[in-house]
Design a protein that fits this description.
The protein is α+β, with helices and mostly antiparallel strands. The protein has 8 helices and 10 strands.
Length: 229
């Protein structure tokens, strides 16, 4: 593979202070990945997925809010997420700069702010799906990525690039233990037991509406972490 092999990936992960870094090949991946990727960057060869750990100390504070305006320790998840998002987005742009100087067009997708269709609440590019194809983990019944290192506790960002990078090994194990702890914990009943062939069943509008009321949540994240931790 040359200069964009596994050693390169490990060097970049260390240099950019990332906990996890995976690569999915556009040409050898499923058709849906190629269509989504090339719609944004025609000629793209690789999707690089970046991840940083969310602190267990902060995730452990999450609980359903009792009322609007209440002082809730779980609100610390907000600035914590902002910090992680800023680090991830900077890392994405730094790798993009490096690859562009090598002559490879690259498109950074930030940790926060990816354009989303408000009719379906689906982003123009699925970071979670890319992370699965990059071998970082699998999807749980709460719809979040679960990795062997951090369970559901990570934030993601992606980079689309023309650079032909060596892909990561794929994940063979399903890290969701199907305990339904996240479903039972959800205060909005946005989560349901998935049907045959489904990884999860979620009403994203119920989840969004709860948050738009000014209430802190994330208890599905905490419930999952407590089981896997």
């Amino acid at each position: 593979m040359g200069k964009f092999d596994t050693n390169f990936r490990e060097e970049i992960k260390k240099k950019l202070s990332l906990e996890l870094l995976g690569v999915a090949s556009v040409d050898s991946g499923p058709r849906a990945l190629k269509e989504r990727t090339t719609a944004l960057l025609p000629g793209a060869k690789s999707v690089v997925v970046f991840a940083k750990e969310m602190y267990r100390e902060i995730v452990g504070l999450l609980r359903p809010s009792k009322g609007v305006g209440e002082a809730d320790p779980g609100e610390l998840i907000g600035p914590h997420g902002d910090f992680l998002n800023s680090r991830l987005t900077r890392a994405v742009y730094e790798l993009a700069d490096l690859l562009r100087k090598e002559g490879y067009r690259s498109l950074p997708l930030p940790a926060a702010g990816c354009p989303t269709d408000q009719r379906t609440l689906s982003a123009i590019f699925s970071y979670k799906d890319a992370a699965i194809l990059a071998g970082l983990g699998t999807i749980g019944r709460h719809s979040m990525l679960i990795t062997p290192q951090y369970g559901p506790r990570q934030r993601l960002a992606c980079l689309l690039t023309e650079a032909p990078m060596e892909p990561s090994s794929t994940v063979q194990k399903d890290y969701c233990v199907n305990c339904d702890a996240c479903i039972r914990a959800c205060p909005t009943r946005a989560l349901e037991k998935p049907g045959p062939g489904q990884a999860y069943s979620m009403n994203p509008f119920a989840c969004r509406n709860y948050r738009q009321m000014g209430l802190t949540c994330g208890v599905c994240l905490r419930a999952c972490d407590e089981v896997l931790g």
